[in-house]
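SAMPLE LOG
Freezer: B-3
Tube label: C17
Construct: single chain, 619 aa
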Amino acid sequence: MLHTHKKYWAARFGIAKVLPMTREEMDELGWTECDIILISGDAYIDHPAFSTGIVGRYLHHEGFRVGVVAQPKCDADYLALGVPKLFWGINSGNMDSLVNHYTSEKRRRHDDAYTPGGKAGARPDRAVVVYAKACRRLAPDVPIVIGGIEASLRRMAHYDYWKDEVMPSILVDSGADILSFGSGEWSLETIAHGLSYRWSLDKFYGLPGIAVLCDALPENLVIRDDSSGNRRGEYDVRRVPSFEEVKTNKKAFAEASRLQILETRVGGHGIVQKHGNRELWIGPIPEPLNTKEIDSIYDLPFSRKPHPSYGDAKIPAYDMIKTSVTIMRGCFGGCAFCSIAAHEGRVIQSRSPDSIAREVQTICKEYPKGKASISDIGGPSANMYCMGGKNTDICKQCTKPSCLVPKICKNLNTDHAPVIHLYRKIRALPEVKNVFIGSGIRYDLALKSPEYIREVAQYHTSGYLKIAPEHVNNKVLGLMLKPNVEIFDEFCEIFKKTSETCGKNQYIIPYFISSFPGCGDREMLDVAQWLMKRHLFVDQVQSFLPTPMSAATTMYYTGYTPYLPIEGQQPMWSAKSHDARERQKAILRYHAPENKQFVRDLMRKYGVNGYNFPGNRKR
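STRUCTURE (predicted):
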C-alpha cells in the first residue's frame, strides 16, 4: 500500500511549484539542503510521462525536499544543490542510455529527444554507472539508490548487446547501495522513509521491488535450488545460476532467464544470484497499485512543463507527449522482444475515468475551448484498460509468460465496456476537439469487441491506425509470443469494413521487425510477399535490438527459448552479422531500386510468388 508512512517532517515547507535545480530556487523555498537529489540523464520535465518528474513529485508529496540535477557533466553540476541528507536517486532518464545513443546496428545517433534542442551528447553511455560512481567519489558516505528503466532491466546478470558479453548486475558495476526496480513508488517510498529512520541496509533485504547485494543470506531463508517447474513446499526465494555460470555457459544463462520469467508475476518469489563471494538478492514483484493509489500519483500537482531554466528551448520528447494521457500501467501480452512486464509487471493497473478526465481538462486549459487534441489516451496497449484475471488467485499461481498466446486465457476478462465508456467520457468534454490513440491496440483482444473496433474507426483514427503484427510467419510469431497472422488478417478486414460503414477511407499501418531470432531470409520473404500482395511498402525498418532482460535477447545470445526447459532444445539461428541483418532489411524494402534484383533472385531461389512485385503503389 502507498502512503503508509507519516509524512517526513520537511512537509511543513509546503509544495514546490517546481522542484529546484539551483541553490537560488532552494533559498526561495526556504530549504537549507535537499533530503533527496535526483540525478537524471534527461532534461527535467515536471510531467507524469517523465520518470524524474513522477518520482520527484511523489517523493516530494511524501514530505521530502527533493532537488533535481539533470544531465550533469562535471563535479560542479553534481554539487549544484549540495550533498543530499538522505540519498542520491539516480536514473538514466526515460530511455536506456545505450538505446538512446545507438541504433540497432550500433550506429551513433545524432540527436536526443530528451535534451533541450534535441542535441546529442548530453548524457554518457551507461549513464547510471557513470553518475553513481561520480556521486560515490564526491560524497562517499551518502547512500546511492539507482532505478529507472536502465537499472531495472539490468538488476541481474544480463547480456549486453553493445559489448557482446554477459555483464553482472548493475549494482556491481555502479557500486550503488540499493536498486529500485519497476515503476517504483512503493519501493521508493519505503527506501526514503527507511533511510530517514536510519535503517541499516539489511532492513531492505527481500522487500518487493528492491534489489541489494549482501555478503551472506540469512540462515533461516528457504532457498529453491530446484530448477524444475514443480511447486513443492514453501520457499522464499528462487536461486538462479550464478553470474560466473551464466557468463561462460549459454545454457545456464537461458535457464536463469527461464526462472526469472517464472517469477515475473504477482505472487511470485524473490531471486538470489551469486556474484563472486556476494549474493544478489532481488525482491519479488510488488503488489499492483489499486485505482485509488494510481489516481493519487497522477493527480499530483505537476506543472506539466519543462523546468523554467530551459527557456524557449524545444525538447522533442516533451512536444510529442505533452497532450497524451497515460491511463494504465503493465502488460499481460508477454511479447518476447518487450520488457514491459519485467519492468511494470503483468497486472494492468488502471486509473479511474474521473482522474483521466481531470488530466485531460488540465491539458485543455492551454488551448482555446474546443480546440484541444489529445494525441494519445493509452498505455503499453490502449485497449487493456481495466482488464485482468477474473480469479486473481489463479493468476498468482500461473507462470505462463502471456495471457494472450497461443490463445486468450479463459480466466482473462476481455470486456471492452470500461475503455469504451472512457473514450465517450473524454469525447464528451466540451474542451476537447479530438482524441486519438497513438499507443496502438492489441488486435487479438479488439476482435472480442466489434463495438470497440467501431468506436476506434469512427472517432479515434485520423486516416491511419498503427498496428504491430511484427511478422507474418507463424513460426517466428510463435517465438515472438504474438498471435498467428490469420488473426491479424481478420482484424484488418473487419477494421476496413467498419471504416467503410462509418463513411471513412482508413488504412492500417503495420510495423514489422527484421532479424528476430529464428528468422532467416526465407521467413523474411513471407513478410515481403504479404506486403506485395497488398500493394504496401515500408520506408523504415525496425531491426531487432537485443535489450537487457527480454526473452528475445536470451534467444539471440544463447539460441535457446526461455519459455521451455532448456535441455533437449536445439539452438536456433539468429541474424547477427552486419551482412545478415542488412539482407533482412533489404527484403522488407523490396521496392527500393537497389534491392529489387536481390529480392527477385531470392524469390526465385525459394520459389516464392512475387504477386505485385515491385509494389509501386502505396495504400
